[in-house]
Amino acid sequence: MSNEALGLAAHAPAKPWLPISGDILAYAIGMLGMFSFTVYDLLYNGDNALWSKGEFSHGPIMLTVAMFLLVTRWREYDQPLAPHRRDIWLSWAILAFGVLIHSVSRALTIVHLEVASFIPVIISMVLRVGGTPLLNKLKFPVFFFVFMVPLPGFITDPISQFIKMRVTEVVTELLWQAGYPITHTGVVIAIGPYQLLVADACAGMRTLFMLEAMGIFYINVVKHSSLLRNVALATLIVPISFTANVTRVIFLALLTYHFGDEVGQGFLHGFAGIVLFVAGLLFTIMIDALLRSIAAIIDKRRHAA
Amino acid sequence: MSTATLIKAPKAPVIHLLIAIALMWGSVVTAEWMKPRKYWADVVGEPHYETLVPTRFGEWERLPDAGGRVVSPAQEEYLLSLYSEIYAHSFVHKPTGRVLMLSIAYGRDQTNDSQIHTPDACYPSQGFRINKREQVDLQTAYGIIKSVRLTTSMGAQRTEPLTYFIRVGDEIARGSKERNIQRLAMALRGYRVDGTLFRVSEITRSELAFALQEKFINDLLSTLTATQRRSLIGDNRS
């Protein structure tokens, strides 16, 4: 049975899993040398190990998702790979730019730019192999690499601060209405005898960023035809992520209140993170279904008219 | 399937690909070669504010530490992860009996993301409201200090006006952009900068709070030696 299956497979036109050309291989070797130090720093190097900190730990996931998208889309591409001479020159220029940024930012420890320089190098590789038509095909996965870049504090801090304050206020208000003894000063929630600090990692820019990434990923995979619906969904992810954050903090506050500090800070704290993403994803899918049915109604009316 | 079908011959000339690899690997080597290694703190001497700030100077005297200071362990751990030294003491102004709180946070290595957190963000997190923010250039005998005055309040009872400034390397830098520019400028000279956050505040409703804080800063600076002063305000000649 299995032999037969194998035999059949052997006769089918053999398409390599990924048509790796020597060009890609060369770039892969170059990039491995260029970025393995960066990845090491991001994971293990003390204060610079941003990917190992809660706020930025979505980085590796985003890298994996973007890579997955890149490979999947690349495999779908069936046009001849014939880069124009102009594309080759462009590829060199972009590579030089990326290498320069990488080198300077690494020397000056601007880790954000150091990670971001991955994007021009990838663009350079795509141009080199397939020219602008291939880049056009792969523009979404290439864009998606943006989400792995840890954003510098001066961009995220004010936004995080704002979100944290609002999340704290809403949670306090809701639980107070439900009859719990809860107050807050700033982003410190006092519930019964316990105090909870709403930290950056819990409810900040990071979750917004990650849910936005997931949302865009979802939109792209589901592939709606309607631009309006896509834009609406991408915008609505902001309130969705806010609601998901509120859900998570309520979950944690109630856990701590009913079962004590150890439970609230223990393994269930991590579980609350999963709650957040499940909630976020469910909200997204629900809102998407809603938008779809609204679009269907509008469509029907237009046909009737 | 053999590897021959998996890896196709490159389209680009091999020499081009070798150049591309050399460029990419070269960027890491160049970065390593350009990287600043010397700590600015080692050049000017790492400050120890606990001994540097005298317990009495001018009309000021340090109060014995109150035992009842409430510090949450989680918060303290977090602060210590940000800073190498944290100094916090209260000083009484003998003629008037008014009490100022001085807090100095020192970070030895400011070359990464865990940079000094300014009161603009810290105070709201602790439940304070910032009612007013004003950038002022304090005139001192040792040059202008670019500082920030905040009028903060918690609830209806507690208003806490404060003055703060930040030293990065050898300069006073106001705002995150100035701090980063200073950090990069020092990195180009080959140094990893340190940084100090200096904050003085008072729980008062007095309109003259900022004048007393300015006096405190001036009095403190004038009792210090030039080297000690440098670790508070840098080599401030502007």
TrEMBL record, chain B:
<dbReference type="Pfam" id="PF11984">
    <property type="entry name" value="DUF3485"/>
</dbReference>
<protein>
    <submittedName>
        <fullName>EpsI family protein</fullName>
    </submittedName>
</protein>
<keyword id="KW-1133">Transmembrane helix</keyword>
<feature type="transmembrane region" description="Helical">
    <location>
        <begin position="12"/>
        <end position="31"/>
    </location>
</feature>
<feature type="domain" description="Methanolan biosynthesis EpsI">
    <location>
        <begin position="19"/>
        <end position="226"/>
    </location>
</feature>
<keyword id="KW-0812">Transmembrane</keyword>
<keyword id="KW-0472">Membrane</keyword>
<dbReference type="InterPro" id="IPR014263">
    <property type="entry name" value="Methanolan_biosynth_EpsI"/>
</dbReference>
